[in-house]
Amino acid sequence: MKFTCSQQSLSKALNTVSKAVTSRTTIPILKGILLNATADGKLILSASDLDLSIEKTMTDINVLEEGSVVVLSKLFTDIIRKLPNEDILIEQKEDKSVIIKTSISEFAILGLSPEEFPQIGEIEEEEEIVFEKELFREMIRKSAFSASIDDSKGIIVGVLIELEENYINMVALDGFRMAVIREEMKNEKKNKIIISSKIMNEINKILADIEENEDIKFVLSKKKAALNFENTKIVIRLLEGEFIKYKDILPKENKCKVTVNKNLLHESMDRASLLSREGKNNLIRFTINENLLTITSRSEEGNVKEEVPISKEGNDIEIGFNSKYVIDVLKVLEDDEIIMEMVSSVKPCVIKPVEGKGYEYLVLPVRIS
Question: Which of 139, 221, 233, 344 could serve as a FRET partner for 98 with CA atoms 20 to 30 Å apart?
Fold first, then answer.
């Protein structure tokens, strides 16, 4: 194998495929990236942790000799990133070593046999979903943060993508909060898939690097899904199991409805959380009385009081929250004003935009003495 390419192009491609490399594996080959220089003048880079596989095709290269080799991802990526912005020569020697050469630098690193590298392959298409790129990214951003990060929690480490007749929903929850985002979309048939939130966040990062606002095509099979765009192919292992019946969790009534400026609430919460971090459960207390929301928090190091003007319908209420869970949703909402709906101090609160029914965020309260 022997080829030349620009440092910038190769570095950018490596940045994409390396998102499928895991350091937490006992299988050495999964710590690598497969480089495959083809006779028709392409370089195909592949990486996989068996749950997420990414394949990137480079066409702006000069293949002098076809062949393939696996290189250790972190070392190879670090070397390419730090080389000067000029053409690079990469060559595999008979002893399997890989030479990386520029006008002023030369590295020789270990190469691994490609024979044991997992095949990404094609998946049997059963259904296709097409997303507008920025819409798909927004749905991930507003839902995936609510999924559990504890692998022992089973299916709730994933994000549910649910196709209904006229809508597509994304849902994530961790037992303390839940995010539901809905967008209008005509679907030929109903379907549900669950994808790890970690993988969803990696997909979001990859899509952020794409300048064109092209459509994202999701190809579904029983156990896998594939995305294809801009010379990139991503294959995902779907999570298996039954997702929680989230519609049963959403409250059907409220006894206190508060409309508040999102930025004012966010700034006050940020300040109040400086002391809540030292306390139990990041506890902050909301006291809603007439047209004023009073936010308080106390710890051994001190206490804080913030006042935010509101518009209220219904009863006064006093309720406690983990400050992180409220701040997290305030970070992703873009609306000037939001609504908080509560039933009592021990039942979930729903946070949502003033306009529309496209987003709901449910957060459990913390018991206060």
Answer: 233
Domain boundaries, the chain: 2-116, 127-247, 251-363
Computed on alpha carbons and rounded to an integer, the radius of gyration of the chain in Å comes to 25
Instruction: Kindly state the tokens that stand for 101.
Output: 């050469």
3 state SS of 198: helix
Whose tokens are 């480490």? That residue is: 157
- Is the CB of residue 324 less than 8 Å from the CB of residue 339? no
Locus of tokens 């966010």: 266
Amino acid found at 47:
A
Q: CA–CA separation, 146 vs 273, rounded Å?
A: 19
- Residue 146's contacts (CB-CB under 8 Å, 6 or more residues apart) are 172, 173, 174, 177, 178, 179, 328, 361
Give the DSSP H/E element, type plus range, for residue 90: strand 87-92
Mean pLDDT of 137-163: 95
Would the pLDDT of 26 be above 90?
Answer: no
CATH top-level class of 127-247: alpha beta
8 A C-beta contact, residue 183 and residue 167:
yes
pLDDT at residue number 335: 92
Spatial distance between the Cα atoms of 269 and 262, rounded to a whole number of angstroms: 10
Q: Find the mean pLDDT for residues 57-71.
A: 96
Burial of 344 (0-12, 13-18, 19+ CB in 10 A): middle
pTM: 0.91
pLDDT digits (tens, 9 = 90+) for 261-272: 999 999 999 999
| CA atoms within a 13 Å half-sphere pointing along the CA-CB vector of 298 | 2
Give residue 100's pLDDT: 98
Say what the pLDDT of residue 277 is.
67
271: CB partners within 8 A, 6+ apart: 304, 306
pLDDT (0 to 100) of residue 22: 86
Give the separation between CA 158 and CA 167, rounded to whole angstroms: 20
- Report domain 2-116's class: alpha beta
Identical fold between 2-116 and 251-363: yes
Fill in the DSSP letter of residue 242: P
